Amino acid sequence: DSKGPSNFIRHLVDQDLAAGKHGGRVQTRFPPEPNGFLHIGHAKSICLNFGLAQSYSDAGYTGACNLRFDDTNPEKESQEYIDAIREDIRWLGFNWQGDIRYTSSYFQHLYDFAVELIRLGKAYVCSLTPDQAREYRGTLTEPGRDSPFRSRTIEENLDLFTRMQAGEFDNGAHSLRAKIDMASPNINMRDPVIYRIRSINHHQTGETWKVYPMYDYAHCISDALEHVTHSLCTLEFEDHRPLYDWILQNLPDESLNAACVALGNKTAESAYVMPQQTEFARLNINYTVMSKRKLKELVELGLVSGWDDPRMPTLSGLRRRGFTPHSIRHFCDMIGMSRSESIVDVGMLESSIRDDLDSNAPRAMCVLRPLKVTLSNYPAGKQELLQLPKHPKKDIGHRELPFAAELFIDRSDFEEVPPPGFKRLTTGSEVRLRGAYVIRCDEVIKDDAGEVIELRCSYDDQTLGQNPVGRKVKGVIHWVPAATAVAAEVRIYDRLFLNANPDDRAFDDFKDSLNPDSLQVLTGCLAEPSLALAAAEDSFQFEREGYFCVDRIDSEPGKLVVNRTVSLRDSWAK
Ligand code: ATP
Ligand code: MG
Ligand code: MG
Hints:
The protein has about 575 residues and is of the alpha/beta class. Helices cover about 25% and strands about 25% of the residues. It contains 13 helices and 27 strands. A seven-stranded mixed β-sheet has the order 12-25-26-27-23-24-13. Strand 1, helix 2 and strand 2 form a beta-alpha-beta unit. The mean pLDDT is about 95. The structure holds adenosine-5'-triphosphate and magnesium ion (MG) (2 copies). The site of one magnesium ion (MG) has 2 residues, from loops.
């Protein structure tokens, strides 16, 4: 057995291995369609497929996972999506076996197999219009009727299919259908279309093909050609499994075997074993939409800045928001694997990154709404270099923090008329500056409008690293030195949707649930000097403010931009 989270799929693989079914091989694949960026739902499938292969391989079996672009719908696909998907998978920490695969690189095999099905009398060219085809298909309660074209001869079918590929017909004029059973209770088995005419330039194969295979036909054969043992997919494909099996069972094993050997995915000697499709529940998360179509709509309408907007549930958005690969893989372990649909609380995703950053992110100080403080009794021109630990528990070294007479604190840490229980700074009271001295506010300076613009304070030089004598100072606030602080733009992100289920039918449109305050941009923030050295994607806990990361796109030397990944505590009322 392998190590890794135990679940029904591992159980099944263990049984197959014990029965000697695949000769000690666990071959999986992750088959994205390059029609958008990957989202956190895909991460569940990636962790499952790559994780399974990895852990069985670690346990001494032959485990591998292929990355296969399922590119049979060229009008919606692009190279941009292919590149983004590759990068996201690598970023998560997974590696595919060998070269990237494309369903399109099997187009010739798929075509030849279609010809083989025609020759076997198991596929025919149908010339019903789409409306007629729908009518003949029947309904859930009514059986379908045979197409009048079902009885075409093999010769006629071969001729028409060849001419479909030769580009003689318009889109939709004919289709190739598997000859199964128009009375099947499973609509997917009522002579499904396996090829259609599409006159379009394909991003991988150009103008070569005029006919394109349908998903249900291409997927099972691609799995077989790659000698996949376990084909894992989401539950909506459960009703398609009989078709998956039908196609493979009706193609001769010798033909599948020979193609598999020709592609170098199998040896001629090993017995041919069909891949087995197994379904699991897709990941749903509340306050989130998880369909590429809807995410694309947000991008195209400019409602977010792009697929990698830090509010998006895409992997590139989560990455830009400051999620680590580890936090996402851990989340996928936590949600587990089952065969019943459920909705995961987004708080679980948030606590996964919060826990990771709490344990690992260096601490720093950043003042979001600066208020100037001048220490009247601190010698002018003097500067002390304080050493603060980067982490309270983990030994990851120290950071240097200059202390001088002019500082900034956060506006919200001072109140002239403090509310009850206020433990921060007020006129005449004391507070500790984090990692430094205790100060007392002596005087408040205001502008003409009555706005507080500066505090004149005094410091107690006996309080560095020790409590003041004879009195207790409860509050601790963060600060930065005025002369050496680093200017920063801070982006505070909140949930993109206000409602737990933006897809709820109660909304005319999921976009009605968008949170108008999901992004707040704070300019003129001041971070401690050590942030001048921060690199793109570095994460920090800004003390008392939350977890932040350096934006990998917009931050530049001399122009620091940080994103709030997550607050210090879960602040959303349940
Ligand atoms: P969407 O409906 O968001 O467009 P999709 O299923 O069409 O997603 P694909 O590119 O076909 O996207 O997905 C690649 C793989 O990822 C498939 O095996 C699919 O089952 C899996 N997958 C997609 N969404 C989820 C999800 N929410 N949870 C788990 N697996 C998913
Ligand atoms: Mg799909
Ligand atoms: Mg899709």
